[in-house]
Amino acid sequence: MRLRTGVIAAVAAASLLALTVVPAASAEDYPTWDEVEAARSSAAATSAEVDRISDFITSLTAESARLGRITIEKGAAYTVAKAELDAATRRADVLVTQRDTAVAEAADAHDRYGAIVSQLVVSGGTESLTVQLLLDHSSDTDLLYRLGAMTKLTQQAAGLEDRAESRSNEADALSAQAAVAEKERDKLAAAAQTALEEAQAAEQEAGARLAAQKEASATLQAQLASLTAQAADVEKRYTEGEAARKAAEAAAAAAAAEAAAAAAAAAEAAGDGGGGGGGGATPIYTGDVDSDPGAAQAYAAGAIGAYGWGGDQFGCLQRLWNKESGWRADAYNASSGAYGIPQSLPGEKMASAGVDWRTNAGTQINWGLSYIAQRYGSPCGAWDHSVVWNWY
Known about the structure:
The chain is an all-alpha fold and 392 residues long. It has one domain. It contains ten helices and two strands. It has helices at 9-15, 33-39, 43-123, 125-135, 140-228, 232-272, 293-303, 311-324, 361-375, 379-389, and strands at 282-283, 331-332. α3 (43-123) runs antiparallel to α5 (140-228) and α7 packs across α9 (361-375). The longest helix is centred in the middle third of the chain and has 89 residues, at 140-228. The N and C termini lie close together (5 Å). Residues 2-28, 125-135, 230-235 and 265-278 have low confidence and may be disordered.
């Protein structure tokens, strides 16, 4: 999918939204089989009940999209907070190490300085040797040697004293910097913990609702099929077709915007030699997503047969989704909001393929294959477009 440039801060801002779940229609609001049978008694009642059930299905899909979007945003916010915490921890550790080294070197210089001063005191110092040299000429050579040695010791002592003072001052400065870095680290640790708890709460809420949504969706689809006397797959294809049509319309509008942006970028690149593009999807915190690229590819290899595509098309699909997401169900592009194996933009579009779109690689793949078939005809058509435009 298209990887648009966006304001990364929008992810953090969206993550601050409270996870206030607006329930879909409660279980007791769903039509019972008795109501379905009663509705079949007249065309008017059947039509009204079909509309009612369709509205419930739409409501379930919308709620799945909303809960999934919130969970993704919370997970992305935690991923950013954790990265900032790790960087701050590394900075604090470096400063503490530098501080400890400076303290040790200052102490060593002080000790060596003290030893030299003690040696000078024991030997009487350079002044005593100078007096002996003036009064006693019997051992001038020895006294001159001793005087030179004492002079060097005095110079070494002065140098060590300066070094000890310098390293001590440096240690004090590093201690102050380390204290600031540790305070910032602790602040970021608290923020990361809060983000983690929010992400986990969002996942738990979405997971709890998912089971009920899947059961309700299956019941409603069965009731709808019974009312309309049509096969369930006909209704499902209609729903998917509507979703694909809307996705195609949105993609067409986005393509126009992308073309304009590409033209502007090309004009700018002509002036400064710049350029770039490519994927930006990385895994985010998703504790309830079992992301298995190998299993996802195996599922897709079996699923493409329903579209009449062969092994050559699967090769194109492999390259396409390797580039987009690495076949990871939890891949998220923070700059555009694209999510999942096919990098649906936004991710909640995949709710049309199933309420478990955020966590189920198979649901993501089903949606992606339908999108590719509707828009490009085949995976190789989508791959060719991606090679030229860097999105599909």
